[in-house]
Design goal:
Elements: H1 2-8, E1 27-30, E2 33-37, H2 38-41, H3 47-58
Antiparallel strand pairs: 1-2
Length: 69
């Protein structure tokens, strides 16, 4: 997932930080904004959904190609 985000948002994102957790925590944040929580959503995001969430937060005008169709 990290590699997909770095490739898709290479102009907008300079890095992705993975922070180890315990107890099955899986969260995706942009700054202080929580975009995805395994606990709240009950699982892991599909990469297409994750790219849309990140795009909507950091680059709303960016075309994601086939994902947007």
């Amino acid at each position: 997932m990290a590699q997909e985000l770095l490739l898709t948002f290479e102009q907008e994102v300079s890095g992705v930080t993975l922070i180890p957790g315990t107890g099955g925590i899986f969260e995706i944040r942009v700054g202080d904004t929580l975009l995805w929580s395994r606990k709240d959503q009950g699982g892991f995001p599909e990469i297409k959904e994750l790219k849309r969430l990140v795009r909507d937060r950091i680059a709303p005008g960016k075309d994601l190609g086939h994902i947007d169709r």
